[in-house]
Amino acid sequence: MSELHQPDKVIFMNMCMICRGNEVLALDKVNNRYTGTTFPGGHVEPGETFHDAVVREIREETGLQIRHPVLKGIYHWYRDGFHNVGYLYRADEFEGELKSSEEGRVYWISREEYEQKELAVGMHRVLKIMDSEEFSECFMDVKEDGSIEEHMY
Prior knowledge:
Layout: E1 9-20, E2 23-29, E3 36-38, E4 41-43, H1 50-62, E5 65-67, E6 70-79, E7 82-91, E8 93-95, E9 104-110, H2 111-116, H3 123-131, E10 137-142, E11 148-152
Parallel strand pairs: 1-7, 6-10
Antiparallel strand pairs: 1-2, 1-4, 2-3, 2-9, 5-8, 6-7, 10-11
């Protein structure tokens, strides 16, 4: 008889690269767990669709109403007994007036300048997924000694 497996405890999140020509919307994140330059996003609330969650998070963090976000891939890792799964979106259609939130300052920046900033953990891999036809998944394997291995698929 096979051993029964307990399902993972999962936390769903999202992140969206919003593009305006050659510019992207940057978020300088300010909290004690995840800092650096990233893209806006957040957690999926219970009962919420992934689409509705990314639209809501972008509106809350930037003031923009995105339309037709495209799912580009996933970034996931295990921490504190939870499987953290981040859905990565790209949006080129939006309206509204840009405004920062308690999450941090948001601003338009050229893609080249963005890549030169002090990016939050994993953002180089997120950019690779956003640009790739080959990769759509990154798993961040955090070792017991604190080292990190990232696997792209």
